[in-house]
Amino acid sequence: MVNVQHNPTLLKIYFYFRTILAFFLLGAFLIATPKNVFGALYPQLFLWTILSYLGICLFTVVFAKPRKLVHSFNRIVSSLIVDVLALVLLIHASGGIESGLGYLLLVIVAMAGIFIRGQLGIAFAAMASLLVIAETLYLFQLQQVGSKGLFSAGFLGVLLFCTAYAFQMLTEKLRTSNLEAAAQAAFAAHLQRLAQAIVARMRTGIIVVDSNNRIELINDSALRLLDLSQESDYRDLGLATITPLANLVSNWQQNPQSGPPQVLDLRAGQQARVSLSTLDLGASARTVIYIEDHRVMTQQAQQLKLASLGRLTASIAHEVRNPLGAISHAAQLLAESPTISASDKRLTEIIHQHSQRVNQIVESTLALSRRKEPQPETFDLNQWLPRFVTQYCTGQNVIIDVEIAEERHLVKIDQTHLSQVLTNLLDNGLRYSRQHTGTARVLLKVDKSRNDDISYLEVIDYGPGIPDEQLVHIFDPFYTTEERGSGLGLYISKELCEVNQASLHYHRTTAGLSCFRIDFSHFQRMF
User: Fold this and answer.
1) How many other C-beta atoms are found inside a 10 Å radius of the C-beta of residue 301?
2) What pLDDT does 2 receive?
3) DSSP H or E run through 111
4) Residues 139 and 209 both lie in one domain
């Protein structure tokens, strides 16, 4: 197989070599000495040949581009043939093989072995050998050379073949080594791109900072968890400029210790587990920050908690509901007695009222413990929410305003659970709005986070809001400020959100209104 080796640098060096060689031969010819061997037999032939050859060499150096020429098989072969013919003519003009110019053919044959693969590279050695032997035989017939010249021509032919084979083998080994190195480099680059893609798309957020807390690497998950724009480049920026983790990292760098991961509120409604480690790179060390979405681990803990709660409430229900039913039934019978006084009848009403409240707590606890695994579905809030509001408002004198951005809002959640959560939130919001303003009115607002495709739903009411001292307790079970409340509404709502990898939290809007916000997980996320 004939092919051209792609090495423009070596080809450029060879072009300069042949040009310098032509200048040297021309200079040696022009310096006339009694023992000058250059052009000794035919001086005019030597002069015109070396001038023509020098012109070709200069033209090649000035106008030819090795990077383009190295891909042209015909041009390389033509240049090598011109070199062989020019040297054979110079050898002939200088009196034959005994002039010593024949050994310059070794360089040309070596270049042919490097640039041309296959049998054609050996053909140059054969062509040069035949031309040298033919030229020597011609001069031998003219009695210009003796038998010693014939031996020199044959020996030079052997050297030419050996040179061609040697350089072809050496070039092939170098080519094979280069191909292997290129393949290994390509594989290493592939592994590097693969590792970068995995780091960029993994669910765990990763930030790598240097000793000065300047960011060297931050992946997409970290940007999403920190609510940062993915279109900006944060490399070489200080950690304190984009994230509240700077103090944590600085304290850890001063006293590195592998303690338990810390759960932090990185943004509203987004809790994350943050852990740190040291990456030793020899002369310098780096700090690696791992950020994980706390909702996934909360969901797993919630499943274990519900399993334990189910077993506990199942036994409590039998122990509580039977005596509770007996107490309630006895109070009813006592209230129906004709001899009971008015004050005693009021006491029976209190017994019956609180029995119903305890029964409601038991029912709510049983419903929570018996809840089935979520059946998440992917749907568009733009279409689902108006239908839910229409069904909820049927038969009620309430006003629910819906504000949805024009874009699609795909979410993945159990629709039954979402309906239950919204029902609890709307009941609370409408009740407090009516108490505070006299009108039962609530605003439902759907939008997306600024740097990802994750939607959220806000339930905004016009009530007085929750005092700051009560905020830490509003999601605790059995905590209520209502006389008739069970204290499980918000607790169950938060549990239902977490089991669907969503989050529920409370905050005030910029206008100071009371707002419960549901942050959904990404609709493509696996459960």
Assistant:
1) 12
2) 44
3) helix 105-115
4) no
Cβ pair 248, 263 in contact under 8 A: no
Burial of 67 (0-12, 13-18, 19+ CB in 10 A): exposed
As given in the structure block, the two tokens for residue 176 are: 């094979």
- Which residues have C-beta within 8 Å of that of residue 497, sequence separation ≥ 6? 417, 421, 503, 504, 518
Alpha-carbon distance of 56 to 75, in angstroms, equals 13
Vertex 117 angle, CA 114 and 170, to 5°: 45
The token pair at 207 is 């930030």
Distance (Å, whole) CA 502 – CA 515: 16
Is residue 337 predicted with pLDDT exceeding 50? yes
DSSP designation for 116 = E
Q: Of 414 and 201, which is predicted with more confidence?
A: 414
Residue 208 belongs to domain with CATH number: 3.30.450.20
Tell me the C-alpha to C-alpha distance, in Å, between residue 519 and each of 22, 255, 267, 279, 425: 81, 35, 11, 34, 14
Domain match, 132 and 163 both: yes
**Coil/strand/helix, residue 15:** helix
Q: What is the CA radius of gyration of the chain?
A: 46
Are both 283 and 325 inside the same structural domain? no
Query: pTM for the complete prediction?
Result: 0.45
Inform me whether the pLDDT recorded for 71 exceeds 60.
no
Residue 96 backbone zone (phi > 0: left; psi -120 to 50: alpha; other: beta): left
> Rounded to the nearest 5 degrees, what angle is found at the Cα of 230, between the Cα atoms of 250 and 409?
120
Q: What are phi and psi of 269, to 5 degrees?
A: 75, 5
- As given in the structure block, the two tokens for residue 342 are 């008015």
Q: Which range marks the domain in which residue 268 is found?
A: 200-294
Question: DSSP code of 99?
Answer: G
**Cross-strand bridge partners of residue 519:** 456, 503
Q: Looking at residue 238, what DSSP letter applies?
A: B
> Among 294, 311, 342, which residue terminates a domain?
294
- Note whether residue 192 is domain-resident: no
Q: Are 287 and 303 in the same domain?
A: no
Within 8 A by CB and 6+ apart from 286, the residues are 208, 209, 210, 216, 278, 279
Give CA–CA dist 454/521, Å, rounded.
6
- Burial of 128 by CB count in 10 Å (0-12 exposed, 13-18 middle, 19+ buried)? buried
End-to-end CA distance of the chain: 58
DSSP run (H or E) holding 215: strand 215-218
pLDDT by residue (tens digit) across 291-312?
A: 877 766 665 666 666 666 666 6
* Shared domain check, 325 and 234: no
CATH number at residue 323: 1.10.287
